[in-house]
Amino acid sequence: MCIFSAGSPASVPHVDVADTRIFARLTGNGTQLLVYEMSYAAAGDLAMILPLPVASRDEDTAVRFIDLSACPDFFDRLAKLIWLWEEKATLTLGEHSSDSKSVRPPLKVHEVGAFDASFVPALADFDRLDARFKLPESVWTNLPQHRDYGFAVFKLRETGNTLKGVHPMAFEFSTRLVNQVFVPTVHVHDGQVHP
Predict the structure, then answer these.
(1) Of 142, 125, 148, residue with least CA distance to 54
(2) Torsion of Cα atoms, 48 then 3 then 108 then 159, to 10°
(3) Theoretical Cys-Cys bridge with 51: which of 77, 109, 149, 172, CB 3.0 to 4.6 Å?
(4) What does the angle CA 51 – CA 166 – CA 193 come to, to the nearest 5 degrees?
């Protein structure tokens, strides 16, 4: 459900991921909210990359990162609200079932709770991040549907190969899919796209 990078495929540390939970909803005016939570284990620092069907490439306004460090139980609260709503509904209604050599300014880094996050407007802008967050061109060749996307990138810290939960990552972005909800489902954990 995400793409991990730490530079060349040989340097991508082994990553174990568990307990992935995603919340997505349109928020109006051409924007969408996405909240992503997981537990992971990694021997070294790495980046988690989420392709986004952005409507805007503006670095200042296309993505608004949201700090949920004060709400690490976001998904538990959401589940409780859904349960309460279902209980009420049952009582009242019945059961419901490229590489560029030019020097360009680095992308902004946002401190978002336990994460450092950046918005990458296009594939060609990955060179404006730390080099270890760049993926091999073969990944994008095998994912042509994402070549014109923007990308939310979250720096994850090593966990000593111990599975560790972290607070949810959240952001709102300008979406070109104004009548449908986008959920990231691409899965690249070793620098390769597998069928």
Answers:
(1) 148
(2) 20
(3) 149
(4) 35
Measured CA to CA, the distance from residue 185 to residue 195 in angstroms comes to 13
Structure tokens given for 137: 């061109």
Spatial separation of the C-alpha atoms in residues 54 and 25, rounded to whole Å: 15
The model carries a pTM of 0.71
Q: How far apart are CA 68 and CA 168, in angstroms?
A: 6
- Closest among 1, 3, 58, 53 to 32, alpha carbons compared: 53
